[in-house]
Amino acid sequence: MPDNNTTSEQTGTSSGKPVVSLTRQSNYNSQEIKDAVVRLLAPLGGMEKFVKTGDRVMLKPNLVRACKPGVPAHTAPEVFRAVAELALDHGATVKAGDSPGIGSAAKVADNAGLTPVIKELGIELVEFTPRDTFSELRQFKKLTIAAELLDADVVINLPRLKTHGQMILTAAVKNLFGAVVGPRKFEWHYRAGENKDAFARMIYEICMAVKPELHILDAIVSMDGLGPTSGRANHTNFMAAGTDPVAIDSVMMKILGREPLDLYTIKAATEAGDTVWQNANITGEVIYNLRPAHWHWPKTSELAMVNTPLFESYPILKKWFRHIAAVFPKVIESKCKKCGACVNICPAKAITLKDKIEIDYEKCIRCYCCHELCPHDAFSTKGGWLSKFLKLFSRHM
């Protein structure tokens, strides 16, 4: 990990400004992907700025759960291959790991198509083990995260651009929530998930505790709608890279037509004093030229876009509006296999299985873990009838 004396040149910054590198890429041809990664890293100093002979490199892909074929929920095998090969070319020992929300890393990597690449390149896939560490930011004093990430000389984060039912968008910062091992994710969802600002702050502090040296984001085929596992494929046709995850995420929000501070994790970072993302140096492509023709946000995120002086001045009114406009998970009976996975997943213990799945909406904290992790995609959402009105109302305040 870089120490506090790391220079701006070494961390991919320009005069103290974080660099976000963008390149167009419209397909998953392996050689084209590798060329694209080389282009992305050139403004940052190339892979040689991050990886030296003998370094222990840990790749952190996005492995959320086993999904149906063709669902863009994971780091694409071709992107994984390109980054792994470049690290190996520079003399590193490369491992990969993640902690899926449900299932082992090996099982989900196999489902994601990474296993053949891992075997061919001789990379070790590790199952994360927990270790206590302390957050430098101190709002969450003790964090229990993957020891393998803390022990690596270089961590390379490999997120995929997706919407997220609870956090609005998952990109560079959110992908580091995978550093939380196994069932502890559900504990964190319960402890902070009811308060999205607190949950976002926790995710940000985890990201800062891991301190990846490099982030390479796949937005060739992204996911919109109700992500991160049940949304729709959107051919956004680009990739991004940088050393500052908040800066990368802010650029993603701009590309998708939203204000960066609409994203909970960027708001949390800013409140923690991290404001360098506001001066990011964007290179390679003009961000507005990358804007997709259509992008569908999850309807669960509409209330996050409501940030009016009226609501901030009257918290009771804000709480009431949130209640009547809230979006809740709903079981799709025709898809439910009554496997009980959602019962075990739910951090609020709001789901029970009798003759059918039942949800106690008084207990539900709207973390959408059931929707995100159901192995049979048997959850949709209901409610939120007022959210479109609130969004329109907020624009006229």
**Number of beta-strand segments:** 18
The number of domains is 2
Number of helical regions: 14
C-alpha Rg (nearest Å): 20 Å
Say what oligomer this is.
Answer: single chain
Query: Given this structure, which CATH class of the largest domain is correct?
Result: Alpha Beta
Instruction: State the separation between the terminal residues, measured CA to CA.
Output: 46 Å
What does this 3D model show about the protein?
The chain is α/β, with parallel strands linked by helices and 397 residues long. The protein has 14 helices and 18 strands. β16 and β17 form a beta hairpin. The N terminus and C terminus are likely disordered.
List keywords for this structure.
Alpha-Beta Plaits; 397 residues; 14 helices; 31% helix; globular; Rossmann fold; disordered N terminus; alpha/beta; two-stranded antiparallel sheet; disordered C terminus
Sequence-ordered SSE layout with sheet pairings:
Blueprint: E1 13-14, E2 17-24, H1 30-41, E3 56-61, H2 77-89, E4 93-98, H3 105-112, H4 115-121, E5 124-127, E6 130-134, E7 142-146, H5 147-151, E8 154-158, E9 160-164, E10 168-170, H6 184-192, H7 196-210, E11 214-224, E12 232-234, E13 238-242, H8 245-255, H9 264-271, E14 281-283, H10 309-313, H11 315-325, E15 327-331, H12 341-345, E16 351-353, E17 357-359, H13 369-373, E18 379-383, H14 387-394
Parallel strand pairs: 2-14, 3-4, 3-8, 4-5, 8-11, 9-11
Antiparallel strand pairs: 1-2, 2-13, 6-7, 9-10, 11-12, 11-13, 15-18, 16-17
